[in-house]
Amino acid sequence: MRFKIVFLLFCIFIHYSLFAFDWVNLHNKADTMSLEESVILIKESKSIEDIYIAGLVYLKYHKNREAIELFKKILNYQEVNYPAQWGIAEVLRRDNNLEESKKILNNIIYKNPDFSPAYISLAYIKYTELNFKDCMELAEIIIKKLHNKTDRPNLARAYLLFGGAKGMLASKGSYLQKIKYGLDVLPNLKKAEKINPHAPEVLFALGSFYFLAPKIAGGNLQKAEDYLKEAIEKDPLFTNSYVRLAQLYYAQKKYSLSDQYINKAKDIEPNNPLLLDFLNKTCKFNCNTVEEK
Q1: What is the pLDDT of residues 152-199, one digit of tens each?
Q2: Pick from 44, 42, 96, 45: which is nearest to 69 by CA?
Q3: Of all helices (H) and strands (E), which one includes residue 112?
């Protein structure tokens, strides 16, 4: 009898946790939390929600190994926990294990189509794979269908990806495509800035726009430098910001400064796609120069 009661209570706990897991609130809370606060949280609480928050904070501070261990710990308690599964997929994405990450993300979207972080991670993968139309479509799902069911940081990322993908389609397309897509880039980036103004990825995206856009379309090298420097200040481990700033200095023939930022990027993330794109001069993700403007 005692075993049955314990088992019944366990089932009730699992059922309640699955449906009471307010991931939107947890993502918003983690976005305002420091690494030190998350460490204290883990020490003082063992709830699944607090473990998840700490995992998100670890992701924010690029402690991917620590984050994945926390997400796995949640899955030891709950085999079916889509946010924790997403956390593992996000670490795989950051490690450039894209195929394995896509399998998990597609499964999450199929079984839980309202879980917007999975769309964001998958959109980033599509962007990396140069599939900008799919990236744009995934971001658009959040903007148009899941706008009120999404946490603040991921809603901002949706606008960034939507605008960024349009920018890439404009830069590589025909004259008509440049008009069709190009005019929508900055408005979407500005929407992201309004939602989450100090997020490193927002600052990076705006810095990239002002660097890459022709002057007639709003390009401004001083604004680009300011945004990219602020992005580095907000997140000293965000590799893309170093690479883009290095490109800007290279375009201005400030080669010593450019080398400094490239070397820093190599130290942080030697296999970063944007870094390799610049070093190999493939220009898959745009590397305009001042002369080209």
Answers
A1: 999 999 999 999 999 999 888 777 777 888 889 999 999 999 999 999
A2: 42
A3: none
Reported for 231-238, long-range contacts at CB under 8 A and 24+ positions apart, including other chains, are 231/200, 231/201, 231/203, 231/204, 231/207, 234/198, 234/199, 234/200, 234/203, 235/200, 237/61, 237/62, 237/268, 238/200, 238/201, 238/204
Each residue of 52-63: pLDDT tens digit?
999 999 999 999
- Please report whether residue 99 resides in a domain: yes
The residue assigned the tokens 């709830």 is 47
Burial class (CB in 10 A: 0-12, 13-18, 19+), 279: middle
Angstrom distance (rounded) from CA 278 to CA 285: 9
> What's the DSSP call for residue 46?
-
Q: Report whether 250 contacts 258 (CB < 8 A).
A: yes
Q: Is the pLDDT higher at 68 or at 289?
A: 68
Number of domains forming the structure of the chain: 1
Residue 32 is part of a domain; what is its CATH number? 1.25.40.10
Whole-prediction pTM value?
Answer: 0.89
Structural contact between residues 29 and 54, judged by C-beta atoms closer than 8 angstroms: no
Under 8 Å between Cβ of 58 and 67: yes
- Cβ-in-10-Å burial (0-12, 13-18, 19+) of 90 comes to buried
pLDDT tier at 2 (50, 70, 90 boundaries)? low
Q: Does residue 95 sit within a domain?
A: yes
Domain span at 106: 26-113
Measuring CA to CA, how many Å separate 214 from each of 1, 193, 246? 75, 21, 18
Residue 245 inside a domain? The answer is no
Within-domain flag for 76:
yes
